Amino acid sequence: xxxxxxxxxxxxxxxxxxxxxxxxxxxxxxxxxxxxxxxxxxxxxxxxxxxxxxxxxxxxxxxxxxxxxxxxxxxxxxxxxxxxxxxxxxxxxxxxxxxxxxxxxxxxxxxxxxxxxxxxxxxxxxxxxxxxxxxxxxxxxxxxxxxxxxxxxxxxxxxxxxxxxxxxxxxxxxxxxxxxxxx
Length: 183
What we know:
Blueprint: H1 2-38, H2 48-53, H3 64-73, E1 84-86, E2 89-92, E3 104-106, E4 113-120, E5 123-130, E6 138-140, E7 152-163, E8 169-181
Parallel strand pairs: 2-8
Antiparallel strand pairs: 1-3, 3-6, 4-5, 4-7, 7-8
């Protein structure tokens, strides 16, 4: 009877070891996923290939070593935090006028100074507005277009650049925006 009890205890211990090992593997995978999701990447030229490459990777047993090797080669950028405080529809009398309602604020609680570029959604290579650096706690209004665009309603993309102490882009944030040029 004691032989059966010892065998039952051995089986129970083996099961506990297997469960503990599986738990450690799951925890390691979760840590890798969290690190991948929270790491910033320096901006690269926006192409469909680069957009896919900049996304996180699902980690599994077959690719965990490759993901760890790739992480070791990727330069680390401190994560930034940004709360966008702005109006989302900007009206301009014409392409040379200051907007009556354009407003952007880098709120005090943000972690980085920022600047932004505004692009027509149909052409994200040529900015129509390039802002100066906006320090934390400072607001920018009296915004003017840097390039003429035709009268009408334009879907735009604003790309915020969160910058570090050296003035380098730490991360970016993309926001939709509508610009209306009346004349």
